[in-house]
Amino acid sequence: MIATTAQHIPLVIKDIAPLIHHYGYLAVGGLLFLEDFGILVPGETVLTAAAFYAGLGQLNIFLVIIIGIVASIIGDNIGFAIGTYGGHPFLERFGRYVFLTPERIDKAESFFNKYGGRVVTVARFFDGLRELNGIIAGISEMKWARFILFNVIGATIWVIFWSLIGYFGGDHINTFLTFELYLTITIVAIIAARFIYKKVRKEKIR
User: Fold this and answer.
1) C-alpha 41: how far from its chain's center?
2) Does 32 map to a domain?
3) Predicted confidence (pLDDT) per residue in 75-95, tens digit
4) Buried-most residue among 41, 56, 89, 200 (CB within 10 A)?
């Protein structure tokens, strides 16, 4: 158990802080592991909360980073196995229990098919895509060696990025996470607008 601190905890990590406070590294590894094969868990918040405690000297930042990377990679590979061996039938049957709706799966798959292996690395920075990363790669029949390469790169960059923000950010963590949310919404809106534009253009050509 982590020692209690009277220091102000940034508002954005208050909800997840009790789990980190009581379970420490186990919470970091367990929650990131669950997120990376489809279960909706606020991964950035988990990492920033753990790194925030590390900044107070109550966790080791290097262990937070190592556990975060390993848990993320293992979780994604389980997702990859689910997509490879279970495919659409498995997701249609069990996906609803973890909020994997057909609409979410179709959107993620279409985005993945369009941009290929690069998505495995970049998708980790976007909510929705991150949770479906490994599953969609498996469904798309990507080679495992190619997937693991992009996956390791993406997990390492993502974990280090949010861990350093939590470790050094202090009260500015709120600003970073809010900016990330707005950035995600903006990018999704641009992608959706582009998709609609192309569809309307095709209809006009016909």
Assistant:
1) 8
2) yes
3) 999 989 988 888 767 666 666
4) 41
Q: How far apart are CA 104 and CA 69, in angstroms?
A: 25
Q: 61 is in which domain, residue-wise?
A: 12-198
Q: Would 179 be classed as within a structural domain?
A: yes
Q: How many CA atoms lie within 13 A of 40 on its CB side?
A: 10
- How many domains in the chain? 1
181 belongs to a structural domain: yes
Amino acid letter, residue 130: R
Instruction: Please report which helix (H) or strand (E) contains residue 117, including its range.
Output: none
Show the tokens assigned to 34. 């669950």
Q: Which of 11, 15, 6, 20 is nearest to 53 (CA)?
A: 20
Nearest to 99 by CA among 39, 44, 41: 39
Whole-prediction pTM value?
0.71
Tokens of 79: 């997702």
Segments in 12-143 forming alpha helices (H): 17-23, 25-35, 43-55, 61-81, 87-94, 102-115, 118-122, 129-139
7 is a domain residue:
no
pLDDT, one tens digit per residue, over 11-45 is 556 777 788 878 889 999 999 998 877 677 778 88
